[in-house]
Here is the input.
Amino acid sequence: MDATTLGAVLALVGVLSGSVVAYLGKRGENATVRWNAEMDQVQEERDGLRTQVAEKDARIAGLLEQRLTDQVELARLRVKVVELGGDPS
Here is the structure.
């Protein structure tokens, strides 16, 4: 094998290895882009769920406040029933 053939074989090996490296690099880049897209989607869903939880917490607080108001009203009405001579049970 003369120098020209050896040089051509080495160049071919270099080109093939460069192609493999470029292919693997692009695969890695695609995987990173997909991963980032998935993470963005998860974060958007998380933010939406946080908003829903905050709304439900506010609704629960309102319902608890209404329950307290109702209990006070019930107690007032029971006192009124007793004052009028009735049985509050």
Observations:
- The chain is about 90% helix and 0% strand.
- The two ends are 111 Å apart (CA to CA).
- The mean pLDDT is 90.
